[in-house]
Amino acid sequence: MSSTSEQDAPTTLSGWLTYWRIDLPLAVALVCCGLLSLFVLYSASGRSEVIVFDQAIRLGIGLAGMITLAQVPPHWYRLGAPWVYGLSVLLLIGVLVLGDAAMGAKRWLDLGVVRFQPSEITKLVVPLTVAAYFHSRSLPPRLYEVLAAGLIMAIPVALIVQQPDLGTALLIVAGGSFALFFAGLRWRIILLLVAVGAAALPLIWFNLHGYQQQRVMTFLNPASDPLGAGYHITQSKIAIGSGGLFGKGWLNGTQAHLDFLPESDTDFVFAVYAEETGLFGVLGLIAIYGFIVARGLFIALASQDTFQRLAAASLSLTFFFYAFVNMGMVAGLLPVVGVPLPLISFGGTSMVMLLASFGVLMSIHTHRKMLVT
Amino acid sequence: MSGDDAIKNHGAERRLFLRRTIAAGVLLLVLIGLLLARIYYLQVAKHGYYETRSQDNRMRVEVVSPVRGLIYSRHGQLLANNQPAYQLEIVPEQVTDSVEATLDRLNAIVTITAADRSRFQARMRQTPSFRGTPIKLSLTQREVARFEVNREQFPGVDIRAGLTRHYPMGKYAAHVVGYVGGITERDLSDIDRKRYRGASHIGKSGVELSYESALHGNPGSRVIETNASGRALRQLDESPAEAGQSLVLTLDARLQRAAYDALGDKDGAIVALDPEDGGVLALVSKPGYDSDLFVDGISHKNYARLINNPHKPLYNRALQGQYPPGSTIKPVMALGALESGLIDPDKRVWCPGYITLPGSEHHYRDWKRSGHGWINLTQAIERSSDVYFYKLGMKLGIDDIHRYGALFGLGHKTGIDLPRENPGIMPSREWKHGHRSQPWYPGETLITVIGQGYMTATPLQLAVVASQIAERGHAYKPHVLKARRDTQTGATTPVAPEALSPIQLTDQRHWETVINAMKGVINDPRGTAHHYVGMNLKYPIAGKSGSAQVAGLPQNEVAPDLASIPYKLREHALFIAFAPIEDPKIAVAVLVEHGGGGSSVAGPIARDVIDSYLDSLQGEPRGPITAKTRDAPPRVAEDS
After folding, report:
1. Using CA atoms, how far apart are residues B393 and B629, in angstroms rounded to an integer?
2. Which of A131-140, B85-94, B240-249, B482-491 shows the lowest per-residue confidence on average (mean pLDDT)?
3. What average pLDDT is seen over chain A?
4. Of B246, B327, B385, B599, which residue is the catalytic one?
5. CB within 8 Å: B13 and A259
6. What phi and psi values does residue B621 have, to the nearest 5 degrees?
7. Transmembrane region positions (chain A) (predicted)?
8. Which pLDDT band holds residue B488 (cuts at 50, 70, 90)?
9. What angle do the packed helices A210-220 and A229-243 form, to 10 degrees?
């Protein structure tokens, strides 16, 4: 990165990008993803221009939000994260008390102007808060610090599970855990937690809702319920499998267009993509995702304080986790949880919040030089 | 590089973070590898399997055709019902080789004619390739079985069980009930296409046409998943179709059959009305035709046979045929003359065998060459004197003749709820000026008053005339629909009869004068029909015969040398009647094409129809009717 004086108006592209604190490799990859999303959704929605237009608007809002967040110096995030965290916990309580039930689950908060899911904010805020917590502490964390970080995760997760929204809860646990992991959580504790988690599975099982249990059962044996929950997985596997090496071609997928695939433009959009673009398309998408994550980890490695490192690394890994869980679910590798395909699935909050997290990454990366004296 | 501080070992933390990032990178690669392995497994290793399953996966939205409403006679006998039928369909999109090749191979199993093929191709062009197009409409059980055995060889071909229309009364009621047939382009232009999605048939004639909208119902839809060969695997969703209304007709099935049979081997038409509400008890046009032939698309051979038949079976003589009414019109003319006050019914008029008009040598002949002598109105009607009516017509004039004729509905469609009715002609000065661009000649008045010349009427109109007289001017519009029956609830809604505008005479006794004369036609020993109709009467019957001249021969009530006249030149025999006189239950018009004498040929048929109906009203055993007064060979009656 060339260093440019703040006062000079940018005259070149690189100057302009630096002026607006945009990380070009990340921005290019994200915009590619966003444009790809428009094409995929056009096909997946059965050529609905409304859906594409909606998604384009959200992409625009998300990119604008990303650039805005990139202007904010990283230490503001460190200082602000606990407060936003506190606010989001209050909002989550608010959702439980007076939330708007959609599809039998209370996830939405209607603020008059916008209706949004406070749980989406926590996805971003929890890793930041954990990172901020460890910022001034000596790492690797000691046990009580691990427990404190665990508590930071547990409070919103407990509230979100009540909604109930298992997918988001899982992602928040993942985000916080990644921060803990990068903070240097000892391997033996990791192993211990995995063991405890495995032991606690029956306990978790009995606390799951009927439909959540059903999803797990279906995952284990999709043929048991070919018309109900297993139908989604069976059909999405058919979609992916029938795509072959090169796919059936854009707009030529039959599974989604014949309405075999439910939620073909949201959680199951990957099946449409895989059907129409084949293995090479999937490789291309994974390459873009991999590049984004790699760039995020690079930013983390290049960053200069603990908060930035932990925040950048855990946000990057969370992004990958999103993608992996969604693709794994659609491919029948994981049970069905409500996780959208990052930057591709139709959905406003998810798109905007993901781009916001990259705004934080860009902020970390582009403010780097100024902290060096 | 920032330096270490007391609490944090920045160097160590940096190295720890690097190690963790590498670990994360490894985890990432492992997960990506796992994912790719899975995708590879699905898209490459098992591609063939999923490719097949994807092709097998077909969700079809099928239109559920509504069940067509049934048609019943007034006593609940089925006139049109739905029978199970199997049709062979091809979904072009699912055919693996070409459609042509599939048709060729199918031909070995199910006979597919060139006509089937061309019809199929015409239909296929108008149908999206993922929809089924019927190739053969009614398969025999044997063909169904043969196809089922070989089904696997024919992807995209399927048998669909459906219902086909069947007309149990066949030729007996073909002209009333009508038939359904394949929907054509022309039908499509005037129907609500949405209601006819997936429909193959539409009413083409008779009640099937006039009540098409009620009978058809509303289609539903069903989402089904099928495999590659098009066989339905399971149903995912359904919105049921709404069956069409069933109709109960005023038609008396037994009387309809009896009337058809009463015509014997002659062509003609019979219309029997219930004068108390205008309901059509029987409406026969002979010869009939087998309406079932039309349901699945009539073959060219059969159609040519019907079209080229000189007896014109498709022609509905009862309401399309326009015949000179002949002397059957005399009661109407008598009522007009009485109402206008121009004649005294008791005054006797000299009737020689002919009259001439002033300034003309032309002889307007009476059917009876010797004349009737001195007769009054009653005798003139009983004996059907033409000269009496010539003189009456000269007094009345064409304007009044037209006015009274029109009052009884002549020259206008009756408005019956059956399609393609003709209005007949009730001539007038205006009519002749408009149609012939000629003035009205006095001689034309003479032949009009005896129902000849330009004047024509349909048998239905004559039946309405009979019921007008029977009801002394308070008759009802003829109709065939008695009630509608909701197929779901079974609730029956009767249709209210519609009164015709009443014919008000200044003196009600005029009705009795004319009716009495019509009674005399049958009862009086000198009445024209007495010998043929008036023997062993169980009910007082009023009637009037008519013989309609076809060619320019002198009209003869009785043609002794009928057999010597070429068939096409023989006159039409007509008879109108109603009974019982004081409480009329049935009004009949009979037309026998080229039958000869009205009294001798049409009269006995009218008597048969009336007897048959009144006997059934009395609850007499419904045995086969036999010729009572007529010297006719015994007929084998068909079971009703």
Report:
1. 34
2. B85-94
3. 83
4. B327
5. no
6. -55, 135
7. 24-44, 56-77, 83-105, 143-160, 166-183, 190-208, 278-298, 310-337, 343-364
8. confident
9. 40
In this structure, what token pair is assigned to residue A89? 């916990």
Query: CA-to-CA distance for B545 and B215, rounded, in angstroms?
Result: 39
ipTM: 0.90
| pLDDT band of B623, cuts 50, 70, 90 | very low
The alpha helices in B311-458, defined as continuous H runs, are 330-340, 377-382, 386-407, 429-436, 442-449
Q: Is the pLDDT of residue B572 over 70?
A: yes
pLDDT attached to residue B568 = 78
* AA identity, residue B524: D
Structural element, H or E, at residue B517: helix B509-523
Cα–Cα distances in angstroms (integers) from residue B306 to residues A208, B303, B421, in the given order: 76, 5, 20
List Cα–Cα distances, B81 to B85, B170, B188, in angstroms: 12, 12, 24
The three-state secondary structure class of A370 is helix
Chain B residues closer than 8 Å to A297 by CB = 21, 24-25
Task: Read off the pLDDT of each residue in B205-222 and give the average, rounded to a whole number.
Answer: 89
Instruction: Return the residue matching tokens 């999605």.
Output: B197
State the angle between helix axes of A24-44 and A269-302 in degrees (0 to 180), rounded to the nearest 10.
170
Q: Which two tokens stand for residue B376?
A: 């009054």
Interchain pair A320, B28: CB under 8 A: yes
**B327 catalytic residue (yes or no):** yes
**Residue A361, SS3?**
helix
d(CA B414, CA B478): 7
- Among the residue ranges A183-192, B358-367, B518-527, the one predicted with the least confidence is B358-367
Least confident window among B217-221, B409-413, B468-472: B217-221
pLDDT tens digits along B317-330: 999 999 999 999 99
Please list, in sequence order, all residues whose beta carbon lies within 8 angstroms of the beta carbon of residue B278, skipping any fewer than 6 positions away.
Answer: B467, B475, B476, B477, B478, B479, B497, B498, B500
| pLDDT per position as a tens digit, B368-401 | 888 899 999 999 999 999 999 999 999 999 999 9
Q: How far apart are CA A361 and CA A369, in angstroms?
A: 14
Amino acid at residue number B270: I
Q: Which residue has tokens 């302009």?
A: A16
Residues 6+ apart with CB under 8 A from B106: B88, B112, B135, B154, B157
User: What is the C-alpha to C-alpha distance for residues B317 and B322, in angstroms, rounded to an integer?
Assistant: 8
Residues from chain A that touch B13, judged by Cβ atoms under 8 A, are 139, 184, 306
Residue A121 CB partners (closer than 8 Å, separation 6+): A84, A88, A91, A353
CA trace torsion B424, B428, B433, B437 (10° rounding): 60
Rounded to the nearest angstrom, the minimum Cα separation between B93 and chain A is 13
Q: Which domains are assigned to chain B?
A: 81-166 (3.90.1310.10), 253-617 (3.40.710.10)
SS3 category, B487: coil
Q: What is the helix (H) or strand (E) element at residue B58, kind and residue range?
A: strand B58-64
Please identify among residues 34-53 of chain B the ones whose CB lies closer than 8 Å to any CB of chain A. 34-36, 38-40, 42-44, 46-47, 49-51, 53
Measured CA to CA in angstroms, residue A21 lies from A58, A75, A295, B240, B602 at distances of 21, 15, 15, 61, 108
More confident residue, B111 or B615: B615
- Backbone φ and ψ for B220, nearest 5 degrees, come out as -115, -170
Residue A247, by phi and psi: left (phi above 0), alpha (psi -120 to 50) or beta?
Answer: left
Q: How confident is the model at residue A165 (pLDDT cuts 50, 70, 90)?
A: confident
Q: In chain B, pLDDT over 70 holds for what percent of residues?
A: 89
The pLDDT assigned to A372 comes to 47
Q: For residue A324, list chain B residues with Cβ-Cβ distance below 8 A.
A: 31-32, 35
Terminal CA-to-CA distance of chain A, rounded, Å? 17
